[in-house]
Structure formats: structure tokens, C-alpha cells
Amino acid sequence: MSVHKYTGKYHTAAEPTPGVLHLSFNRPPVNAFHDDMWGELRKTIEAVEFDAQYRVIVLASSLEKYFTAGLDLADAQSTLAGRKGLDAARQAFKLNKHLVDFQGAISSLQACRLPVIVALHGACLGLAIDLASACDVRLAAANASFAIAEVNVGLAADIGTLQRFPKVVGNDSKAREYALTGRKFSAEEAKQIGFLSEVVPGGRKEVLDAALGMAKTIAEKSPVAVVSTKHLMNHARDHSIQEGLQYTAAWNMSMLQAEDTAIAMKAVLSRQTPNFPPLEPVKAKL
């Protein structure tokens, strides 16, 4: 089926190599996110997840100078203004629903069974940290700059940064510093604290090429092994080592029966490239 079905109003879609879906945000001039944009992202991620054609997702930006400037402040003001006239309790219920939906859209990247690689460049502000923290692998161009900028507009970051970023970097003090000051930090600093896997010399094209190269490598692996690895690492992050080991044993007693293991071992012994069958979605009939 055509990859173009995943192109939306605010992002483009391409399949640069088999099994790799490249989604590129495209809302000039700065990729500021409003409700429709994050809603569209969620629908796309949730649709791709069970498309047997794809095994890896790469997120990037089509704009030269911006990954994203973060939240569309004009849209946010309009959202808040639309609740005037309601009492405090009713405003709170509406705002809660909006926030939970927004959180769910960004969390869809983490929940997606396919690994998500993000290629960051230029200005990566506010929501960029939420998005990147929910992805599996983060690469950045040398020209990337970051900021947990919500505090600068009178907000506490509420879409996942305060929950994920400290776990990703493993440095609570540094995470608090960034979140409380809103100061910018460079790609090199982001790598030093563990936020990035790699800083790629150059800009948008160079980091995208690096991300697509990594995605191609992953797409050639067993989809059972790849999906299982992401699932088990997500589980391990919020559980003890012993709980993680027990869960992995229970998970793998099924996964080890997949034909992928035999295919991979045979390929290693014969020094041939393995060809793994795709994962088909299982749809409940309830």
C-alpha cells in the first residue's frame, strides 16, 4: 500500500528504505504544535503501529532552522479563552480532558510497538523535549539547541518532560536546572548528560541521513526481536530488576518459539542475509 496515506496536513510521509517510515513535521514557519497537529500525529502513529509494511519510524522536521518551537501559544490562548464563563470546576474538567488527550498523543510514541528514532536539528524547544523523551533513540545535528522552555511562558511542563527527561538523562539535578531556568543547552551538552546517542556534524540533512541509516539497520532485524526488545525495556524502566527478569522470562517463553530465531541462526551459520516475515496485526473480534 502507498506510504502517502500517512501524509497529513502537518507532516509528510516517505519510505526511504523498505520497512522504514519517515515522518517529517511541516508547519511553517516554526512547526508550532496546536491541537490538530498533535492529534494528527497520534492517529498516524497508532495506524502505522500495526501496518505490517513498517518496522521502524523516523521523526524529523522539514524546516531548515526548526525541529519545533514548541506549543502554538496563540492556539493555547484561544483554548483557554474558550472556557471563560464556566465555573472553576467545569473549567478544570475540560482542561483536564485536553491535557490528558495531549499527553496521550505524545505518549503514543513510547506506547507504539515499533521503535521510533528522532532526528533533531535547529531549535528544539518546549514540546520538542516532550517528543524526543518519548522516542527510543535521539540523534541531533551539531546545530541543535534545546530548552525546557515552558517555565518561560508561565507553565510547568505537563506533557511528559518532567516525567521522562530525568529518567532518560539519569541526572535529577541537571533535569531540574533545565526545567526551572528554561535556559538553552547545546547538542554537545545534551549528549554529555545522556539525552542523545550521537551529535552529527552538520544540520538537518546530515542528522536525517544518520537516523535513516540506523533505521535501515533495525528494519533488517527480526521484527519479533525488535518489538520485544522495546517492550521489555519499557517495562524494565519502571520495575525492579527482579520484576523485569520475571516478566522477560514469561514474555520470551512465547517469543522464543517464533521462526525468527531459527532464521537468524541459520543466516549466521551460512553467512547469508536473513529475511524475516512481517508481524501481522491481531484484531480482537469483540
TrEMBL record:
The keyword Transcription regulation does not apply. Pathway: Lipid metabolism; fatty acid beta-oxidation. Keywords: Fatty acid metabolism, Isomerase, Lipid metabolism. InterPro entries: ClpP/crotonase-like_dom_sf, Ech1-like, Enoyl-CoA_hydra/iso, Enoyl-CoA_hydra_C. GO terms for cellular component: mitochondrion. One of its GO terms (biological process) is fatty acid metabolic process. CDD domains: crotonase-like. GO terms for molecular function: delta(3,5)-delta(2,4)-dienoyl-CoA isomerase activity. Belongs to the enoyl-CoA hydratase/isomerase family. This is ClpP/crotonase-like domain-containing protein.
